[in-house]
Amino acid sequence: MDAARVGVITFPGSLDDRDAARAVRLAGAQPVALWHADHDLQGVDAVVLPGGFSYGDYLRAGAISAAAPIMAEVKAGANAGLPVLGICNGFQVLCEAHLLPGALLRNVGLHFVCRDQRLRVDNADTAWTSDYSPGQEIVIPVKNADGRYTADDDTLKALESEGRVVARYLDLNPNGSLNDIAGITNEAGNVVGLMPHPEHAVESLTGPSTDGLGFFTSIIKRLVNA
Ligand SMILES: NC(=O)CC[C@H](N)C(=O)O
């Protein structure tokens, strides 16, 4: 089979699109550059919304990007089962686009927090986490100002009872996220939002570990076996 094609969307102000594309390539797939103003996904097999400060984080982080032309295609695709991963600012966009529930608020300390973070992968059944084992502990960087996951009580209960918390912060919670939530998935398990950055932990030369590569190898195995 030809290499899986994974789209990486660049919005004005995206920061980590090149690292995401590099992670896709290292994992064995072909990255496809997509632009926020595009009206089609070029037939990609999966989509990554990268980190950064899309549209300068104006209004709220991710709010303007959620209305970008390409997001109409991402929404239609996600609702039809297309695997979508939102990393940090991408997670913020997915919440603003209502592809994931809840919201990401300003960190409790009101500071931008940048450090290597220990996480536990609590759900290894999603399209993006199947290469991990349930409960696996990993270390990848976290770097954001608006990372405090919040949701109303009913949503939180549903996320917990349905096992939709994908990853949790271990040690110190960096931002005050409810239930130490670092990442969640939608009901179908094809859309995942993650606040820390797996694409910055794919090579030992430049990252704190290679623990992040699993998000990208997971999706590629899923696509190849589909
Ligand atoms: N690293 C990022 O993607 C930053 C996300 C976001 N703009 C924030 O500061 O919260």
UniProtKB/TrEMBL annotation:
It comes from the Bacteria. Part of the phosphoribosylformylglycinamidine synthase complex involved in the purines biosynthetic pathway. Catalyzes the ATP-dependent conversion of formylglycinamide ribonucleotide (FGAR) and glutamine to yield formylglycinamidine ribonucleotide (FGAM) and glutamate. The FGAM synthase complex is composed of three subunits. PurQ produces an ammonia molecule by converting glutamine to glutamate. PurL transfers the ammonia molecule to FGAR to form FGAM in an ATP-dependent manner. It catalyses: L-glutamine + H2O = L-glutamate + NH4(+); N(2)-formyl-N(1)-(5-phospho-beta-D-ribosyl)glycinamide + L-glutamine + ATP + H2O = 2-formamido-N(1)-(5-O-phospho-beta-D-ribosyl)acetamidine + L-glutamate + ADP + phosphate + H(+). Pathway: Purine metabolism; IMP biosynthesis via de novo pathway; 5-amino-1-(5-phospho-D-ribosyl)imidazole from N(2)-formyl-N(1)-(5-phospho-D-ribosyl)glycinamide: step 1/2. Pfam families: GATase_5. It is found in: Cytoplasm. Keywords: ATP-binding, Cytoplasm, Glutamine amidotransferase, Hydrolase, Ligase, Nucleotide-binding, Purine biosynthesis. Its main location: cytoplasm. PROSITE patterns: GATASE_TYPE_1. This is Phosphoribosylformylglycinamidine synthase subunit PurQ. SUPFAM superfamilies: Class I glutamine amidotransferase-like. NCBIfam families: FGAM_synth_I, PRK03619.1. GO terms for cellular component: cytoplasm. The active site is at C88 (nucleophile), H197, E199. Part of the FGAM synthase complex composed of 1 PurL, 1 PurQ and 2 PurS subunits. Its EC number is 6.3.5.3, 3.5.1.2. GO terms for molecular function: ATP binding; glutaminase activity; phosphoribosylformylglycinamidine synthase activity. InterPro entries: Class_I_gatase-like, PRibForGlyAmidine_synth_PurQ. The keyword Transferase does not apply. One of its GO terms (biological process) is 'de novo' IMP biosynthetic process.
